[in-house]
Amino acid sequence: MALDSAKKLEIIANYGRKEGDTGSSEVQIALLTARIAELTEHLKIFKKDHASRLGLLKLVGQRRRLMKYFKRTDKVAYLALVEKLNIRDNI
Question: Domain of 67?
């Protein structure tokens, strides 16, 4: 269920601070959000795929920890990212 390289490069270009930026919190959160969306669609079709469900829960937890860190370090950029990605601010 990995993202294809073209989609990954597009996300990095949209959310990166500079060219080639793959490690910033914004990029990591955006990549995790895309993977979570794909897994969610997969699980709507294959309801009994419990291994993928466990992977989805791990990804959600990882994204939650990254969002918590990002909110603590740069709240303005965090709120802009949450708005841009259309995800809830539940941290």
Answer: 5-85
